[in-house]
Amino acid sequence: MKRLNSPEVEACRPFKLMYVPQGFEAIDTGITEALRLLVSELVLASPDTMLEVAAREKPGAVLVMNGLHVFPENHLEQIDEIRKMGIATAIWFADDPYFTEDTSVICLHYDHVFTHELGCVEFYRSLGAGSVHYLPLCVNPQMFYPRRTGPQHQFDIVFIGNAFRNRTALFDELAPYLKGKKVLIAGGFWERLSQFEELSPFIRSGFIPPEETANYYSGAKLVINIHRPWEGGLDNRNTFQLPSRSINPRTYEISACGTMQLTDIREDLGSYYRPGHDLETFASAEELKRKIDYYLKHEHERRKFALRGLQTTLRHHTFTARLPQLLNVLTSQM
User: Fold this and answer.
1) Claim to verify: residue 244 and residue 282 sit in the same structural domain
2) 158, 223 in Cβ contact below 8 A?
3) In a domain, 5, yes or no
4) What are the pLDDT digits (tens) for 133-150?
5) Which helix (H) or strand (E) holds 130?
């Protein structure tokens, strides 16, 4: 299937940057491929070897993705030593605000802090971080794009993600309505459902790799997006109880696959997509059922939504479009 063209990439900067991936394949691949176009020299390092590689390569700056989960115990000691060499350090938090117990400490060890979460900007500043910037996430259109799929990837309704409590509550309520429809619910922990037995024919348990996720998105008539809850508890370390205000990466990934999206609402959604034009929203199970019914019966309208969402994504929300904002900060003192 022919892909729509992404906007032109800005000119390559004469800058040597070291990038430290988090282990999010879709995000890390998108950032790496974009940076290869945007800077003259890109060096990659693992979380365990940041200091060693920085000392050897002497980049103009080090960019760390997220700094959680797979990073070693000496993560911050490595960053402190890198800064002592006169190398600028930056971190882009992609899990905000769900781990504020950790990020509240991490942010103070970096020269520049970027967060995809609108609600965390003033929080990090209030802690004493000096250079804090709101930088929304985006998508790699070389990974998420419209493609022809076989019948094994074709469903009326798709949801992919882990079974956080707001998601299980919604699907428990939807269970009688979904009976008889062609549905895929994929991800981890869906045994938490009260209606697990009724919904189990729809469930594919476990992690779905990005390429497979893109196949399911492309083959779907409608994809549901339900944002993760922000409250502290079993799945979060949000001890500062900061509410989520920003959209997740799946918002961009679904629309990049040229499929109509039905999403719950986050405060900054309207800054990046036009509800009622690029995608549709819902605030309750009843509203979601009404909209699923309508758009499954109105293919022409559904396809128009999908195309507009795709065009908006490719024009404004790719890594090559987003990363120059980050590079402007890193290179401003050169």
Assistant:
1) yes
2) yes
3) no
4) 999 999 999 999 999 999
5) none
Q: How confident is the model over 295-321, as pLDDT tens digits?
A: 999 999 999 999 999 999 999 999 999
Q: Are residues 254 and 285 in the same domain?
A: yes
What's 19's domain CATH number?
3.40.50.2300
Q: Are residues 85 and 187 in the same domain?
A: no
Q: Is 3 contained in some domain?
A: no
* 38 located within any domain: yes
- Is residue 63 within 8 A of residue 322, CB to CB? The reply is no
| Band (8; pLDDT cuts 50, 70, 90) | confident
Based on the fold, state whether residues 303 and 323 are members of the same structural domain: no
The pair of three-digit structure tokens given for residue 66, joined into one six-digit string: 């997220």
**85 and 226 part of one domain:** no
CA–centroid distance for 306 within its chain: 19
84, two tokens: 């002592």
Q: 185 lies in which domain range?
A: 151-316
With a CB cutoff of 8 Å and minimum separation 6, the contacts of 230 are 97, 98, 236, 238, 241, 242, 243, 244
Mean pLDDT of 24-30: 95
Same domain, 191 and 210: yes
The C-alpha atoms of residue 225 and residue 204 are separated, in whole angstroms, by 17
Question: Which of 253, 268, 244, 242 minimizes the C-alpha distance to 309?
Answer: 253
Please tell me the distance from the alpha carbon of residue 173 to that of residue 286, in angstroms, as a whole number. Answer: 9
For residue 198, give the H/E element and its range: helix 196-199
Q: Which two tokens stand for residue 334?
A: 């050169």
**CA 138 to each of CA 83, 110, 250, 306: distance values in angstroms, whole numbers, following the listed order:** 28, 23, 9, 17
Q: What is the DSSP string of 9-45?
A: PPPPEEEEEEEE--S-HHHHHHHHHHHHHHEEEEEE-
Among 163, 222, 172, which residue's Cα sits nearest to residue 198? Answer: 172
In a domain, 280, yes or no: yes
Q: What is the pTM of this model?
A: 0.95
Do 123 and 161 lie in one domain? The reply is no
Please tell me the chain's helix, strand, coil percentages from 3-state DSSP, rounded to the nearest 5.
Answer: 45, 20, 35
- With a CB cutoff of 8 Å and minimum separation 6, the contacts of 28 are 21, 22, 65
